[in-house]
What we know:
Layout: H1 4-18, E1 23-28, E2 48-55, E3 58-64, E4 75-80, E5 85-90, E6 105-111, E7 116-121, E8 129-133, H2 140-143, H3 156-166, H4 171-176, H5 186-196, H6 208-229, H7 234-244, E9 262-266, E10 271-275, H8 276-279, H9 288-294
Antiparallel strand pairs: 1-6, 2-3, 3-4, 4-8, 5-7, 6-7, 9-10
Helix pairs in contact: 1-6, 1-7, 3-6, 5-6
Amino acid sequence: MPELPEVEALAADLRGRLVGRRVRRLDTYAISALKTFDPPARAIDDGEVVGVERHGKWLDLAIAPPAAAGEPSPLHVCIHLARAGWLRWRDEAPKVRPRMGKGPLAAQLMLDDDAGIDLTEAGTKKGLAIHVVRDPHDVHDIATLGPDPLADAFTEEAFSAILAEAGRAQVKGVLRSQRRIAGIGNAYSDEILHVARMSPFAPASMGADDVHRLYVALRETLQAAVEARQGVPATSLKSEKRSDMRVHGRTGEACPVCGDVVRQVEYADSTFQYCATCQTGGRPLSDRVLSRLLR
């Protein structure tokens, strides 16, 4: 799943490509992709892209519709790529019009010069979401986002208050909770906790020294990832993300800090990676899948 650094890079790339250009139409090919009906998707036809922003893991394309659409201010096409979604820039129109519900193509944003964006989603579990709204906060999952962890207002004091409010909840889950902190997912929470040398199962309520260490790790890890993604084309962002990971997705490999093997904890629908030497005092964490195998 693309997280804050990748979505920030996508927003910057699309801002340079789209702002000032005119939209021909938005076509959807996966019935589940378009989540809204008012305003209709056709309201952005012939509209001008006036901005591209990021809200957590959401992309927000602001499009000023033509006067004939009757909308007094820009509409927003808000896109969440979910676990297996992605987008690809096209310089020309497809030679064959895609068929509804066939293949990974979920939607196409067509520009008036035949360039545009393909939104795709692999696999059978569909989570990619497109909302056409008058205000981004009309999307419930955007309206309920926590603070952006790279914003100036996200101070160490603000972070400490979030952790204190979470109490005994596991810190990895707190980092991943979009209602507490926007934009961090499974991968970067693994990386942040490894940099902080902290167990994913540690309680969120912690001492001031631990809060400071985790805050610094969070800000530095995300900022470094954002800087590393600047100027990287969308087609290369996934591979860039994987290549930069210290522990996430590296089960069985050597920890880059201490050389111990990177271990994995697997749940029904997700996994995470960590280094026992760096993060848990050498103690392997309980893995429910492994525990079942050992019975």
